[in-house]
Amino acid sequence: MIKIEGLHFSYGDKRVLKEINLYLTRGDFIGIIGPNGSGKSTFLKTLSGYLPADKGVIYLDNYLLNKVSNEDLARIMAVVPQDTNVDYNFKVYDLIMMGRRPYQNRWGMVSEQDREIVSEVMEMTDTQGFSQENINKLSGGERQRVIIARALAQEPDILLLDEPTASLDINYQGEIFDLLAKLNRYRGITIILVSHDLNLSGQYCDRLILLKDGQVYKTGIPTEVLRSETIAEVYQSDVIIEENPFTGKPYLIMVPGGSKKKQWGKRSTITENTPKIHLICGGGSGRKMFSLLHNKGFQLSCGVLNIGDSDWETARRLNLKIAESPPFNPISKQSLEYNRQLMTEADIILLAETPFGHGNLDNLKLLLDLSDKTIILKGGRKFQERDFTGGEATLLWQELKRRPGCYLKNKTADILQLIEDLIKI
Ligand SMILES: Nc1ncnc2c1ncn2[C@@H]1O[C@H](COP(=O)(O)OP(=O)(O)OP(=O)(O)O)[C@@H](O)[C@H]1O
User: Fold this and answer.
1) Could you say which of 3.30.540.10, 3.40.50.450, 3.40.50.300, 3.80.10.10 is the CATH number of the domain covering 276-423?
2) Ligand 1 pocket, 14 CB below 6 A?
3) Could you tell me which Pfam families the record lists for this protein (predicted)?
């Protein structure tokens, strides 16, 4: 185990790690995540003994980390740093062999066992192909694999890695994580890595440590840590968390433009006074609008939508108020009433370019009922092309267009501009 008690660390006057208390189990695959500057690399450096704590202690099993000799530490722990640049033009093979130093005598005599281990780790990391190349001639990704190979040549019990896949393409990212998972599962190596990739971390790690401003904000299994509320609080970014259908692990989808950091034209927090927009959509006609209006910080509602419809899915993920109705049935009275309530509460009702059949015609009728509301109609395609009611919907649409307070706009940008103008009035 690795036990961390009351750990503090500062660079000069700058306090970076504050009161970190953790108990890490040997054999786990642990991910350290957190926004830029939250202290992840610094934490990893204190764990490796590279940076001495200002206050607090780290135990490695029952030994104080700062009392373990460098030689012993090198046989227990190996580090893959963030910066893999190597000052000297070593040959790849020689550099990996350097990982065997803790096991060699003081003259650095290379044994048969050293050669076997180096050959094994080169195979694992797919680095044999350039064993005689100079390290600085390799691409960032190839160099990264060589540095991992050198760390593995140390035969460590614990492997610390700082963003090991940062410069790798998607193929090698997966391969490196697969390799780390194998080392963890079959060789019992404890993996502790810093990563910005929340999806890969959520996928592979047994446990995540989420840092914010140098403190542990949350720790636990990925499903406990990777929650949309938590990510919004720590990263100030809107994400949707889904379940990976292959693994059941969480994966994150960024809501486009979902950063809550200061942005042009964006309302920062929703209050009672935040304008409300109700969207009538369906079949994917509302998706783009949902995303754009959500990012502009409006309060959104929608309906009536069939349960399972793609717009219903999007609205559900964004946690919107939805008047919903089971599919393959006429809209229920209850859903219509709830839709009427949402429409009445809204400042603006927006009718997306959705097709109409007998199943959702009531949405149009309801619009005509609400005579005092501001309504924006998204035009573009000929309405007749999306009328599957034999003309009934077209009649309602024409009536709507004539109504005062009803605006017809063909382009999304014009709709957004109109909303901004109407809200200002
Ligand atoms: N050598 C240093 N001297 C002074 N300040 C430093 C030093 N290294 C890091 N810092 C500061 O400490 C804070 C934490 O940095 P650290 O690199 O540990 O964060 P991080 O979470 O790993 O960031 P990133 O995700 O950007 O790599 C930052 O504000 C950084 O500027």
Assistant:
1) 3.40.50.450
2) yes
3) ABC_tran
